C-alpha cells in the first residue's frame, strides 16, 4: 500500500468518524430546546468520565443551566438525552404515563453479559412485568418480618465484633466494615449461607462482591463505553464482569437450589419464589441463567448501596455528635421497652432513626440519576415560555437527577446541612415525593426498598446501642466527593473511630 493510499484511508476514516460523532450535535438546537454544549465525542459527562469532576457536579451544572426551563438537553456520549427539572414532568413520566416510559436504558444486549442483560433492572416490557410479579412477594412486610431474626443476628454479630475487637485503637474503614455486614446479610437471607465476613476476611463471597461492586478507574470508563457503544463492545468482546465472577454466582445458585431440593428446605426468599416459578399456569420455569441474573442484581444492590448509606450515616453522626446522642437516647429507650431487645414492629416505630436514615439518603442517594426510556411517541410541554412542545420518539432516553433535586434549596433549605429534623413528624408531610426519591418512583421503584431500609436501620441500631462513632485523624470536617468513581464516596474515605460506650450508658 503506497503512502497516498494510507493517507486517503486515514482521511476517509477520520471524516467518517467525525460524521458519526457529530451526527446528533444540533439535535436540541434544531428543536429549539435549551441544552448544555457537549464535548463532540464524550458528551455532557466528559469531565466525570475522565475523573476531573464528580458525576453529581457534572449533572448539577446541567441542572442549574437555564434555571427556568422545565427540561434541558444533554448528551450521553453522542446520544441526546432529556434532563427533567420539573417535578410535575417527573410525575408524568414515571407515574401517570409510565406505559410510555416503562424501561431503563439497555446496558448490554450481548449474550456475553447475561447477568447484566437478564436481571430485573435491565429487563423490559412483558419480561420485566413477569419477573417483577415473581419477585415482589419476596419483599412484602410479612416476608421482611420473617427475615428479621436472621438479619438481626448479623447486626448483633457485627456490633459485638466492633465492641470486642481492637478497633478502638485505630481508625476503621467503615465502608469495608459495613460491607462485611451487608455481605453476611445477603449470604444468609438469599443463599442460606453463614459466611461471617468479619472473621473470615478473605472469603470468596466478599472478594467477589467487592470486585463486582467496584466501578472506579478503567472499569468506570468501560461501563460508559459499553452502555453507549454496545455494537463496538460486542465486536471487541469488552465486558464488565469477568468469567470467574459469572461462574461464582451461577455455582452459588446451583448449589443453593440443589441443597434445598435434596433436603426439602423451604425459605421465605426470592430464590424460593424463582424455584416455584414453574408452578404458574402457562409459564415456563426460570432458567438457571435467569435466576442467577436476579441473584446477582439483588446481591449487588443489597451489598454495596446499603453499605455506602451506612458509611455516610456513620460519618455524618461522627461529625454531628448532638444528633448521635439523640439517636442513642431513642435506641436506649427502645431497648428498655423491649427488655434489651428490638422487635420488627418497634424498629419501624423509631421516628428519629427513620429521620436520620432519610436525611442521609437525601444527601447521598444511592443513584445520582435515574433514567427512563420511551417506547412510544410522546409530547413534552414547552421547556420555556415561548418555545414549542417537543415530540420525542420511541427510544428517547430521559434523565431524572435525584442528587440535584435532593440538594436544591427550592425544596430543601440549607441543603448541604445534615438535619434529620427535616423528616420529623411535623416536617415530613411537607416533603413532596416528587423531589425526594432515593429509591426511585412509580412502578420501577426499587423492589427491595423495605429490605434495604431494614438492613441499614438494624446495623445502626445495634452499633449505636453499644458504641460511639468518632471522627478519626483522617476525617475532614466537610465531605468532598471522590471524582475517581461514579458511585458516591468521600475523597478521604470513610475512616472513623469506633469506641465502646461506657457500660452505664447502655443496657
Automatic annotation (TrEMBL):
Gene3D superfamilies: Cytochrome P450. Pfam families: p450. The keyword Nucleotide-binding does not apply. GO terms for cellular component: endoplasmic reticulum membrane. The keyword Iron applies. It comes from the Eukaryota. Heme binds at residue 446. One of its GO terms (molecular function) is monooxygenase activity. CDD domains: CYP6-like (cd11056). Signal peptide: none annotated. InterPro entries: Cyt_P450 (IPR001128), Cyt_P450_CS (IPR017972), Cyt_P450_E_grp-I (IPR002401), Cyt_P450_sf (IPR036396), Insect_CytP450_Detox (IPR050476). It is found in: Endoplasmic reticulum membrane; Microsome membrane. This is Cytochrome P450 9e2. The gene is LOC107217291.
